[in-house]
Design brief:
single chain, alpha/beta, Rossmann fold, 11 helices, 10 strands
Length: 274
């Protein structure tokens, strides 16, 4: 009788052990505590959709416009001025943000209110972008999906012929004239597309004058639809350069890049080069 009782107790112990193993190792990571995610970055929001973690995404900022489905998510303010009270009331398991794009004071306040925060640094290179994307994928239990997207991006870039030698000016602002230098994130797009950046500077986005551009004589000018009239800038540059080619890139995609939008930007620029 005692032996039967002992065996039953032992069997229950084995069942409990198996159940714990299943919980700890076989159930997706999001079930452990990331069922409710808030994103305070357009880039992170779009990335979460790419890795198929949109179901867990319960809140985004007013600037999160891509994909279109993201606009239907509950809004929690802007990246710089998120609504702290609203975020707390939504009981998120984690809030994703960026060190450069979100207010340190607001993020510190959220942490004091016991809200788990995960920061990402703004990528300075294509490699940084891939690392951030893989880290995010791992955080939300979508590591394999993240790896697949990153591998596809690297493969797509490897197929481009990138030794064409075009001299590229990447214009960021018009008044004052602000451009992307060889130390900017945009430089990787230029180089991988097969061009060379005519602006060398320790600053990623220096101010320069028109005369400097004329002396460097670009044959490709990249314009972005952000804060200035693209058509007016094209007409202005045509007065100085007869054979210059223009490419217009989506400021949202370039400013908040994902592996997919980065590759698309490179391809768009590369297609301009015969």
């Amino acid at each position: 009788m005692y032996k039967i009782f002992f065996d039953k107790q032992k069997a229950k112990g084995y069942i409990l052990l198996v159940w714990l193993i299943l919980v700890l190792f076989l159930i997706p990571f999001s079930v452990h505590g990331y069922d409710r995610i808030i994103s305070l970055s357009p880039q992170i929001t779009e990335s979460l959709y790419l890795i198929e973690a949109a179901k867990e995404l319960v809140g985004v900022t007013e600037f999160c416009k891509k994909p279109a489905e993201a606009t239907k998510k509950q809004k929690v303010g802007t990246p710089l001025r998120p609504d702290v009270e609203k975020i707390v009331s939504m009981h998120p398991d984690i809030v994703f943000g960026t060190r450069e794009g979100n207010s340190p004071l607001v993020m510190a306040r959220l942490e004091r209110l016991n809200i788990k925060i995960h920061y990402f640094n703004r990528p300075k290179t294509f490699a940084d972008l891939m690392d951030n994307f893989l880290t995010l994928s791992k955080c939300v239990g979508k590591e394999e999906k993240g790896k697949q997207i990153v591998n596809n991006a690297r493969e797509a870039l490897s197929k481009l012929k990138n030794e064409k030698g075009y001299r590229v000016l990447w214009q960021v602002g018009a008044d004052p004239l602000v451009v992307a230098s060889n130390n900017s994130f945009a430089n990787d797009i230029i180089v991988l597309a097969g061009g060379s950046n005519i602006i060398e500077s320790e600053l990623p986005y220096p101010r320069i004058n028109t005369e400097e551009v004329i002396l460097k004589n670009p044959n490709v000018i990249v314009l972005m639809d952000m804060g200035y009239n693209v058509q007016l800038e094209m007409e202005r540059w045509k007065r100085y350069f007869n054979k210059v080619k223009f490419v217009i890139l989506d400021a949202y995609s370039v400013g908040s890049p994902t592996p997919v939008s980065f590759v698309n930007a490179v391809k768009t620029l590369a297609e301009l080069f015969p």
